[in-house]
C-alpha cells in the first residue's frame, strides 16, 4: 500500500500550482477592511493566514478538510471492535484531504510505534523536573529538547534546497507525534506515581499506547475516549494561539520541535488550553460550596458570583464560535452512551442549561455557549484520570496533529517568514488625525 509520504509527494506539485493559480486570480483582491479596533482587539476576524487542514465556521464549528465531526466519526477507520475514529486516520485526512484505508492507518500506527522512543537525555530532563513544575512546562521542555535530533535542522545546516524542505519536516513531524505518548506517560508517572512505564506495543494503535502509558489501557472505554479526544482536539483552524504560534515560529524555519514547543507554551494559558483543567476545578469548587444535587437557583447564583468576582466562567465563550461547540456535543454524545448516570456529567448538563442564560444577561461575552473544554474533564475523571493539571497535556498531544500537518504543508508550499506590521498608538493618532 502507498505510504503517507509517497501520497504527499504526489499531491505537493499540484497543490503548489493550485496556490499559484489562486494567488494569480485573487491575489490583488482586497479581503475585508481592517479596522483600527482590530489592531487593538487581538486581530479578531482579521483574514490573515492560510491553514489547510481545517476551517472554523462561527455557527457550525470545525470542519476537517471539509468534513464535520459526525462525518469524520462515520468515515475514518476504527480499531477492531471500536466505534471512535482513529487519530491516525485523521492525520492522513489533515495532510491529504483523503480518507485512508484500514491498512494505511495500521501502517501509520506501526510507523509511529517504531519512532516512539525518547533520547535518554530527554528522559533525564523529565526525571529531573520537580513534581511541582506544571506538566505543561515539562511537556514543552521535552518537546523543545527533541530539536537535538531534528532532521530538518540537520538538513538545513547541510544546505538542503528549499524544494526539499518538506521532506525532513515530514520526518520530524512524524517523530514528534510518535514520541508524545512517551513524554506524556513519563510526566504522568513522574508527577503522580504509578510505577515504571510500559513499552509501546507496535501491534496496537496510537491511542491504546497512550492510554497504556498513562496506566488506563485496561479500560477499553477510556481507550475509545482517547481516540475521540485526540481526533476532536487535533485542529481548530489556524488563528487560535497554539496553532498560530506553531505556524509563526515555523515560519522562521525553526524545526517542528521548536515550533510545537512554542505552541505548547501558548496552549498552557488559561484562556486557551488550560481552560480544560480550570473547568473541573471550577465545578469541584462549586460542589464544595453549594453541595451535590444543588438546585438550579443555587448553581445560577454560583455562576453570578464567579462573574462578580471578575473571573470568567471556564469552558464557556469562544473567540470565533457563536454556537455550542460540536466538540462539546461529540463529548456529550460519548457521555450519554458510556456514563449517563455519572453525577458530574449531570452537573455539566445542569450548568449547560444555566450558564448561557447568565452570560447573556451579563451581556459581555459574544458567545454564551460552551466550548470543547466544558466537557473533557468530566469524561477523564470518570475513568479515574483525576489529576486536573495533567489535562492540558492531553490537549497538547492532540494539537500536535494539526500543527504538524500544517508545518509540512507550509514548508512544501514555501510559506514565507511571518512579519505583520505593527503601529504605536502615537502613530495611529497621527495617521487618522484628519480622517
Ligand atoms: N465568562 C465570563 N466572561 C466572559 C466569558 C466567560 N466564559 N467569555 C467572554 N467573556 C467576557 C470577556 O472576558 C470580555 O470581557 P471584557 O470586555 O471585560 O474584557 C467580554 O466577555 C468579551 O469577550 P468575547 O469577545 O466574547 O471573547 P474573546 O474573544 O475576547 O475571548 C475566550 C474568548 C474563549 C478567551 C473567552 O470567552 C473566555 O475567557 N472564556 C473562558 C475561558 C475558556 O473557556 N477558554 C477556552 C477556549 C477554548 C480553547 O481555546 N480551548
Automatic annotation (TrEMBL):
Keyword Transferase: yes
Matches recorded under InterPro entries: Citrate_synth-like_lrg_a-sub (IPR016142), Citrate_synth-like_sm_a-sub (IPR016143), Citrate_synthase (IPR002020), Citrate_synthase_AS (IPR019810), Citrate_synthase_euk (IPR010109), Citrate_synthase_sf (IPR036969)
PROSITE patterns: CITRATE_SYNTHASE (PS00480)
Protein known as: Citrate synthase
Family of the protein in this entry: Belongs to the citrate synthase family.
Molecular function (Gene Ontology), one example: acyltransferase activity, acyl groups converted into alkyl on transfer
Keywords attached to this entry: Transferase
Gene3D superfamilies: Citrate Synthase, domain 1, Cytochrome P450-Terp, domain 2
GO biological process: carbohydrate metabolic process; citrate metabolic process; tricarboxylic acid cycle
PANTHER family: CITRATE SYNTHASE (PTHR11739), CITRATE SYNTHASE, MITOCHONDRIAL (PTHR11739:SF8)
Active site: 272, 318, 373
GO cellular component: mitochondrial matrix
Amino acid at each position: 500500500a502507498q505510504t503517507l509520504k509517497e501520497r504527499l509527494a504526489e499531491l505537493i506539485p499540484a497543490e503548489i500550482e493550485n496556490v499559484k493559480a489562486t494567488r494569480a486570480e485573487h491575489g490583488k483582491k482586497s479581503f475585508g477592511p481592517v479596522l483600527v479596533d482590530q489592531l487593538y482587539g487581538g486581530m479578531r476576524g482579521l483574514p490573515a493566514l492560510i491553514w489547510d487542514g481545517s476551517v472554523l465556521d462561527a455557527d457550525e464549528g470545525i470542519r476537517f478538510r471539509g468534513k464535520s465531526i459526525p462525518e469524520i466519526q462515520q468515515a475514518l477507520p476504527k480499531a477492531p471492535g471500536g466505534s471512535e475514529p482513529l487519530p491516525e486516520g485523521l492525520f492522513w485526512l489533515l495532510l491529504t484531504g483523503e480518507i485512508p484505508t484500514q491498512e494505511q492507518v495500521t501502517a501509520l500506527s506501526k510507523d509511529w510505534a517504531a519512532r516512539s522512543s525518547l533520547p535518554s537525555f530527554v528522559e533525564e530532563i523529565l526525571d529531573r523536573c520537580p513534581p511541582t513544575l506544571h506538566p505543561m512546562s515539562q511537556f514543552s521542555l521535552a518537546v523543545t529538547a527533541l530539536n537535538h535530533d531534528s532532521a530538518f535542522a540537520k538538513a538545513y545546516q547541510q544546505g538542503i534546497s528549499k524544494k526539499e524542505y518538506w521532506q525532513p519536516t515530514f520526518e520530524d513531524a512524524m517523530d514528534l507525534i510518535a514520541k508524545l505518548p512517551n513524554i506524556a506517560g513519563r510526566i504522568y508517572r513522574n508527577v503522580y506515581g504509578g510505577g515504571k512505564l510500559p513499552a509501546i506495543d507496535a501491534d496496537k494503535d496510537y491511542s491504546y499506547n497512550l492510554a497504556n502509558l498513562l496506566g488506563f489501557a485496561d479500560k477499553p472505554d477510556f481507550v475509545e475516549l482517547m481516540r475521540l479526544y485526540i481526533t476532536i482536539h487535533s485542529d481548530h483552524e489556524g488563528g487560535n494561539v497554539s496553532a498560530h504560534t506553531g505556524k509563526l515560529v515555523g515560519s522562521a524555519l525553526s524545526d517542528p520541535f521548536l515550533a510545537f514547543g512554542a505552541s505548547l507554551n501558548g496552549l498552557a494559558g488559561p484562556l486557551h488550553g488550560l481552560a480544560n483543567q480550570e473547568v473541573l476545578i471550577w465545578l469541584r469548587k462549586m460542589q464544595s460550596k453549594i453541595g451535590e444535587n444543588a438546585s438550579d437557583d443555587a448553581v445560577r447564583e454560583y455562576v453570578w458570583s464567579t462573574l462578580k468576582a471578575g473571573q470568567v466562567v471556564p469552558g464557556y465563550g469562544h473567540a470565533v464560535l457563536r454556537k455550542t461547540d460540536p466538540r462539546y456535543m461529540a463529548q456529550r454524545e460519548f457521555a450519554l452512551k458510556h456514563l449517563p448516570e455519572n453525577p458530574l456529567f449531570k452537573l455539566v448538563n445542569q450548568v449547560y442549561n444555566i450558564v448561557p442564560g447568565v452570560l447573556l444577561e451579563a451581556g459581555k461575552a459574544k458567545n454564551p455557549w460552551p466550548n470543547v473544554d466544558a466537557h473533557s474533564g468530566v469524561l477523564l475523571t470518570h475513568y479515574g484520570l483525576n489529576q486536573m493539571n495533567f489535562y492540558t497535556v492531553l490537549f497538547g498531544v492532540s494539537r500536535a496533529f494539526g500543527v504538524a500537518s500544517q508545518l509540512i504543508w507550509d514548508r512544501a508550499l514555501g510559506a514565507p517568514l511571518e512579519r505583520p506590521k505593527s503601529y504605536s498608538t502615537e502613530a495611529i493618532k497621527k495617521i487618522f488625525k484628519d480622517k
